[in-house]
Amino acid sequence: LTRFSIFLCCLTSALMALVSFVFPDLYNTSAEVRTLARRMILVCALLTPLDAGANGLYFTIRSGGQVLVTMVFDSLFCWSVQVPVSYALVCLTDLPVLAIYAVILSLVALKCVLG
Predict the structure, then answer these.
(1) Among 114, 106, 98, 9, CA closest to 52
(2) What is the pLDDT of residue 73?
(3) Do 19 and 41 contact (CB within 8 A), yes or no?
(4) What distance in Å separates the CA atoms of residue 63 and residue 69, rounded to the nearest whole number?
(5) Mind listing the pLDDT tens digit for each residue in 59-108?
(6) What is the pLDDT of residues 32-41, one digit of tens each?
(7) Hey, what's the torsion of the CAs at 18, 11, 52, 37, to 10 degrees?
(8) Where are the alpha helices (DSSP H) in the chain?
(9) Which residues constitute the domain of residue 17?
(10) Taking a C-beta distance cutoff of 8 angstroms, is the pair 105, 43 a contact?
């Protein structure tokens, strides 16, 4: 089931990548904002299969039907890892927004290792 989820996610990612060239043009924004939106959609499309794999593995191995444990782990991971890393990257580095976005999305792999 995890493999099927990753496969479907790859198809969805391909669709997201295709739409990324059209979707930002639907909004009345500057060219710079449209370019950033396209790139953010592409980064999300690239990392979405990682998220599907992480969720499949995590819920199969860790959860065991205990919804409360899953909710606590997800919220603790968000507030103890993702938020501080986001804050540190924004305040302590000169990384561009797109790089910070990619790093934060890729932290899902760490959640798999910890879980």
Answers:
(1) 9
(2) 78
(3) yes
(4) 7
(5) 776 666 677 777 787 888 899 999 999 999 999 999 999 999 999 999 98
(6) 999 999 999 9
(7) 0
(8) 2-19, 31-58, 67-77, 83-92, 97-106, 108-114
(9) 2-114
(10) yes
| Token duo for residue 65 | 């039907």
Say if residues 11 and 45 touch (Cβ distance below 8 Å).
Answer: no
| Residue 74 CB contacts under 8 Å (≥ 6 apart), including other chains | none
Closest CA to 56 of 4, 110, 114, 113: 4
For residue 20, pLDDT over 70 is answered with yes
Contact present, 12 and 51 (Cβ < 8 Å) = no
Q: Could you identify the residue written with the tokens 């890729």?
A: 106
Structural domains of the chain, count: 1
In this structure, what token pair is assigned to residue 14? 């391909």
The kind and range of the H/E element at 80 are none
The token pair that represents 52 in the structure block:
């599907």
Spatial distance between the Cα atoms of 88 and 85, rounded to a whole number of angstroms:
5
| pTM exceeds 0.85 | no
Dihedral over alpha carbons 37, 39, 44, 46 (to 10 degrees): 160
